[in-house]
Design goal:
The complex is a heterodimer of chains A (188) and B (194). Chain A is an all-alpha fold and 188 residues long. Chain A contains 9 helices and no strands. In chain A, helix 1 crosses helix 4. In chain B, helix 1 packs across helix 4 and helix 8 packs antiparallel against helix 9. The chains are: A mainly alpha (188), B mainly alpha (194).
C-alpha cells in the first residue's frame, strides 16, 4: 500500500515539476534546458548532469518538438510510462491554457506596451540562460578535431538556413564508425 | 469530422517536424489553405506570440490553429495530434534504451551528436537574442559591417539586462525563474517607463 502512495507522490511531483518548466519556457524548446537542469539535476537530484545531457542529446536527435521529446524521455527514465505521460501533460498544459486564454481575449494582449517591455527583458535573460546550458553541453563533448569541425559546421549551416538533420545524422554515423571499442565489438 | 481532421493534420506535422517549431511553419501554411479560415499573416503573428508565451512553438501553433478553426474541442484535438507522434516515438526509444543501457550503444552513438546539439543550442540562443539584444539582422553576409560599427547592431538597454542576468546566474546562482522575473521587471522599467 505504501508503495502505491509513493508512486502517486512521485507522479504528482513529476507533473508539478514539468508544469513549472512548461510555464516558464519562453522562446521555444531549447529555452527549457536551463530550467530542466535546475529542477531535475540541482533541486530534485533525479538525474546527474551527464545522464541529463545524454537524454537531451537523444531526444533532440529524433523528430518532434524538443520540449515534448525531452519531457517524455525524462518522465520515462523516472517512472516509466506513467512518468512520461504526466511529464508530457505537465509541460504541455501551461502553453495550452495560455494560448486558449490569449485566443479568447486576443485584443487585450496585442500591442500591450507593458507586456511587450517585460518580455524583452525576459528574453534577454533567456539568452544568458540558454548560453549557460550550451556551455555545460560543450563541456561534456570530446575536444577532438572531429567534434570541433561538427560543432562549427553545424553553426554555419544552421545560420545559412540549411537543416541541421544533416549534421545530426553525420554525427551519429561517425560515432558508430569511429566510436568506442564497445561499439566496434557490437558491430563486429 | 472536423476534429478528427485537425487531429490528423497535426499528427502528420508532429511526425515531420524535425528540429522544433520553426520548421513547422511552411507545413502549417500548406495545410491551412484547405480551410480558408486563417491567413498567412495570422500565422506569423502567432509565431511572434509563441515566442513570448510559455511553451513550445509547435504546441502553441496547434492550440491556436485548432481554436480558430473549431473552438475549444478543435484546440484540444490539434494539440493531442501534435503531441502523439513524438510521445509514441520516444516511448519506443526509451523502452529500447532501457534494454541496451548497459551496453552503452546509444551512449556511443551519441558521441559525435553532442557537438551538433551543442551548436544547435548556441544557435537557439542567437535566435532569441535577435528578438531582444540585436536591433538589426545579424548574419554571415553583413559580418564586416558589424565589426566596423557594432553599436548600431546591439540594443544597449537590452545588453544591460543581459549583463545583469549573467551576473545573477554566475555570481549568485539565482534560480532561472527568478532571473527571468527580475529581468522582466527591469524590462518594464527600461523599455516602458523610460
Amino acid at each position: 500500500m505504501k508503495r502505491v502512495i509513493d508512486c502517486k507522490k512521485i507522479l504528482i511531483d513529476i507533473f508539478i515539476t514539468f508544469f513549472k518548466i512548461g510555464l516558464f519556457t519562453f522562446g521555444g524548446g531549447y529555452a527549457m534546458i536551463p530550467l530542466i537542469e535546475e529542477e531535475i539535476v540541482n533541486k530534485k537530484e533525479w538525474l546527474n548532469s551527464d545522464e541529463l545531457i545524454e537524454l537531451l542529446t537523444l531526444s533532440e536527435s529524433v523528430p518532434g518538438s524538443v520540449s515534448i521529446n525531452s519531457a517524455t524521455m525524462i518522465g520515462h527514465k523516472l517512472a516509466r510510462r506513467a512518468g512520461s505521460l504526466v511529464a508530457v501533460l505537465g509541460v504541455v498544459l501551461p502553453s495550452y491554457i495560455v494560448i486558449l486564454v490569449i485566443s479568447i481575449f486576443s485584443r487585450i494582449f496585442y500591442g500591450n506596451e507593458i507586456i511587450k517591455a517585460a518580455l524583452i527583458g525576459v528574453r534577454c535573460a533567456v539568452v544568458a540562460l540558454i548560453v549557460k546550458s550550451a556551455i555545460s553541453f560543450i563541456r561534456s563533448c570530446s575536444k577532438d578535431i572531429i567534434s570541433n569541425i561538427l560543432f562549427f559546421s553545424t553553426i554555419v549551416i544552421t545560420l545559412l538556413g540549411i537543416h541541421s538533420i544533416l549534421t545530426i545524422v553525420l554525427g551519429a554515423a561517425l560515432s558508430l564508425v569511429l566510436g568506442h571499442n564497445d561499439v566496434n565489438k557490437w558491430i563486429g | 469530422m472536423i476534429y478528427i481532421k485537425l487531429f490528423a493534420i497535426f499528427f502528420k506535422m508532429g511526425i515531420f517536424s524535425f528540429g522544433g517549431g520553426y520548421a513547422m511553419i511552411p507545413l502549417i501554411q500548406k495545410e491551412l489553405q484547405k480551410f480558408n479560415k486563417i491567413s498567412i499573416p495570422d500565422i506569423y503573428n502567432l509565431v511572434a506570440i509563441s515566442e513570448v508565451t510559455p511553451g513550445s512553438i509547435s504546441v502553441n501553433l496547434a492550440t491556436f490553429v485548432g481554436y480558430e478553426i473549431a473552438g475549444f474541442l478543435g484546440a484540444t484535438f490539434a494539440t493531442l495530434g501534435i503531441i502523439m507522434p513524438s510521445f509514441i516515438i520516444i516511448l519506443v526509444i526509451s523502452s529500447y534504451l532501457m534494454k541496451y543501457e548497459e551496453k552503452k550503444l546509444i551512449k556511443d552513438a551519441l558521441f559525435y551528436v553532442k557537438p551538433v546539439i551543442s551548436a544547435l543550442i548556441i544557435v537557439a540562443a542567437y535566435y532569441v537574442a535577435q528578438t531582444s539584444i540585436f536591433k538589426k539582422d545579424i548574419n554571415l553576409y553583413n559580418i564586416m559591417d558589424i565589426i566596423k560599427k557594432p553599436l548600431s547592431y546591439v540594443d544597449l538597454k537590452a545588453t544591460f539586462i543581459l549583463l545583469i542576468a549573467i551576473i545573477m546566474i554566475k555570481r549568485h546562482n539565482i534560480h532561472p525563474i527568478a532571473v527571468m522575473i527580475i529581468s522582466g521587471l527591469i524590462g518594464i522599467l527600461l523599455f516602458y517607463i523610460f
